[in-house]
Every structure is written in C-alpha cells, then in structure tokens.
Amino acid sequence: MRKIKFVVKDDNCEERLRYIPGYYFPSMFKIKKIELCTASQNMYPIPIKCSFEELNCNDEQRLQCRIEEFGEWGYECEDYPLCYIVQEIPTNIPAKPSDKIQERLYRYSQLVGGQYYDSWAHENGNEGTCEWFACEGEDEIISKKFAELRKCKRGEIVQVIRDEYLTLGIIEDYCNDGCYNMWIWNEHKECSREKISSSRILYGHYMDHELHAFDDKIRNELKKKLIENNTICELRVFCRNEREPKYPFDIYTAAKYFYPSFSLAKAAIPDLVKEYATKEWLNVYRYVIYTLAQNKEISDMNKDAEDIAVYLPDGSLWIRTGTKGVIRKGEVYEYIDGANNVHRCMIENDSRNDDICDHLILNCDYTHGWSHITEIMPCTFPVSEPYVDALKSKLDRYDEVERGELKAIRGVPYEVESKYDEDMSDYLYIPASFSGLKYDMFFDCNAAYRKNMHPMWFYVAHPVGDKTVLLPITVSSDITLMWEEYEHLMYDLSVTEGLIDFIIFNLQDIMTLADYQCPPEYFLWNMMKMANLSNLTLENEECNDL
User: Taking the model in full, what pTM does it have?
Assistant: First the structure.
C-alpha cells in the first residue's frame, strides 16, 4: 500500500501540501522473465526477450514464494532464464507503462540488484501533481536488503540488461541513489557513458559459466574509455633550493601542468626542458607525471596516483611505477621524505613488484625505513668512495643481525671489578673488536639508570694492573667519569681513543636503547664504528664545500 500526496494551487498561486488522511491505494508487482534470443548469442549486444509477464499482489511473502517456484521449475526443466525483473507499479491512477516505484533483479531465486525511486510523480493537467510515497515503516525490510547487496567496484566488467538487449559495461563509480556511472557497449557497437540502475546489472559468478561472449576487443575498448575519460595527468616541475647546496636539501613544486592523457604530458617535457634551461634562477630537480583518477581523493601522490613516471632534469626517463630491476641493493641514491627534504640512502633490497623499496636513510639520524620507488633518485652530488664503503659496512652488519650471525649479548662475559652493584644483565656487551675502540663497553638496554636511580651511563672495561674495572661514564656530549679514583684515565679515553666522537655520533641511539625504545639488534647494526667516523666527517666536509 502507498500513500498519496496532492500538490494543489490556490488563487494566490501559492503551493501548499494537503494529505488525505486514511486514503491509501494499492500497488502491484509485475514479474518479467528475461531470456536470450538464440539467434546471436556470441555477439554483443545480444538481443533479449521477455517470455512472460505476471501480475502479483503486493505481498512480499507471496512474491518470494513465486520467485522460488520459478527457480525450482527452471532447475527441473534445465531451462534457466537470464534473470527475473520485478517491478512495483502503481494502480488506480493514470500512469505510463514505464512508471514504477521500485525495481528488483533476481538471478534464480536470489536477489542480486534493486533500486527504489524516491518518488513517482504524475502530472494531472492543471489540477496539480500526485506523488507516491511509502507508508511509514512499510519498506524498511526491503530497503535494508538493497543496502546489503554487493557493490561493484571501479573497473569491474559486468553485464548490463537494457530493455531490448544484453551488453557489457565497465563500472566507473557508484552513486548513492542506487545507480552506477559506467561505460557500456551500446546498440551502435560503440562506447557510451550512461547511468545504469543496479537492478539492471549482472556480475561475477552469475554469468561466467553460462555466457562465453566476453569479447576481448570490447573489454579493451571499455577499459580504454574508462582510463581516458576518468583520469587526468598532472605534470609537476620540482626545483632545488639553491640556498642549501648540501645534504640534506629541500625541493619545491615550481609549476603544475594538466593534460588529458599521459602521451600529451610526456610530449610536453622536451619543451619544458628548453624553457626552464633559460631560467637561470631555477634549478630543476625532476619532472614527474602523475596519472590521477578524477573521482578519487588524493592524499599522497606517490601512493594514490594510478601511474607515476619520473624524468631527470635533462628530460630522460628515470623510473616509472612498476619498473623492475632499476633500484639495486647496496647502491647509493637520494631519498625524498614527506617534507620534500632530500637525503642520501643505501638500498637494502632490490625494488619489489609492489613498488616499495627497503632502504637505509642516511641522514643525521641514520635510521632504517622504506619508501615508494618514485621517491628514489640518482645522487645529485658525487659521493666519495670511503663514504660508500662505510655505508656498505653498515648494510653488511644489518644483514648479519638479520641472519642471526651478530647476536646481542647481555652481561659481562668475564671477571670485572665495579664500584656499583648492578645487575649487568641490563647492559649490552659491545666488544672492542666490533666498536673499533681499544676497550670493551657495556650500554644500558633495560632502563638500569631508572632502576638504580643514577644518571644514564655506560661502562668501559679498562685494565688496571692485574684486574679489569668497569668505569661508569655519563651518556652526554660532555662525558664525565663517575669514579673519582680513576679520573686520570679520562683524558686518554676521551681524546686518545676517540671516545667523545664515538658517543656523540651514537648518542641518540644509546639513549633510545637505554629507554628500551629499540631492540638491542637494532642498536648493533645502526651503531657507527670508529673506523667509519673519519670517513663520515670527511664526507660532511665535502658536502659543506659543494
């Protein structure tokens, strides 16, 4: 049953709504059995026919029973129709044959699609307009069923049921009104963009085993239309900040250009290279083409773009999404972080199929991380050989830790004498052979300084006569020996042995280890050895001179 609403006009031509209380009139279900015409089953669009129509009363249970009877009858007779279309139509009021309140699509006895029309209106001359609306609470059940139906995804190939034929289409996006914006293969055997109700779409397993007319040519034409008409190519010119000609330096977007296709964006790059070559105040870092979906929210260009191509300042292609075998393990590149700062990095693993690179970010923090392949660039400035060797040494240590060859040892592996009675299992043992220093060291790895209420310190195992003592030294840029009896050894440790430089270069990692914010294995591979400190210092000086 449906409620009727009249819109009438008075003498002042002001519209007012007037309901007729308690006045209802019925609607009915029209069941259509849709079958394929056998004349051309392997060529889209395929003609269809409505083998019969049946009017059923407005009773959900009776309708469902009738649909199930059709399914059982088709199974017994091995005569499966393509589908059943059920339309709810108004009665007792003038209406067009195409007028309907709702439409459902059944495959066998299963509901696979449906759409409600917000209202149906009939113009009745000068008397006004009458509209159909559902009675309160009447359609909640079927509306919930519609909402739970499967939603087709963008780019999915489906079958579309038109009034006279069956054809193929590709989904562009879903509308909140129960329809899809999509491209279909029409009766003129060409692609056209239309809005199709979900009650006219067959998808997935409902058709694959029955119809084999999925022409690759039609599929390719639909996919081509989807890409060409629903994406835009954005070409960005990134320039380097001249104020900081050293690592790390920053880049910025100097210009944006938009093109309807990737080929046009690519063709524009040679002209841009010539144009920007004349602008001496601009130092082009790279050109990037992003292929973007117009109906998709973009938060991160490198993650949300459908395709990315990066070109060097001379206009030559550097890398593209999906490229294999370009980024190599153990080679030094530049890494662009989220703030458009450029750092050097050494690749940990070869680039994978998911366009993600594992790498070591070699900035002042010396941390490990990962990046999108399009955020990697060849080095702008030359990298010295000693610096590369230092990085490879660090990468080798990481591999040793990962393979379990370099294990973290807690506690003291030999007899020592100490001023403080502490549980040395809270300290990580670093042998002299590993650090490059003359003496073994022990670093807090379990918040021992908080447990024992003393400053954060580490121990140096120093021989004194025929014994070995643990000298507590504070963790800071201004290290202090906390055992006055051996204070005379401090100069030799800090200056001659380079302890101060070692602590300064590894200060952040030592403090992080003490607060147990990183595992000991991470500290082992991330720690800078003494043999590499001079190389790093030399490299930093070279960068400052650039």
Answer: 0.46
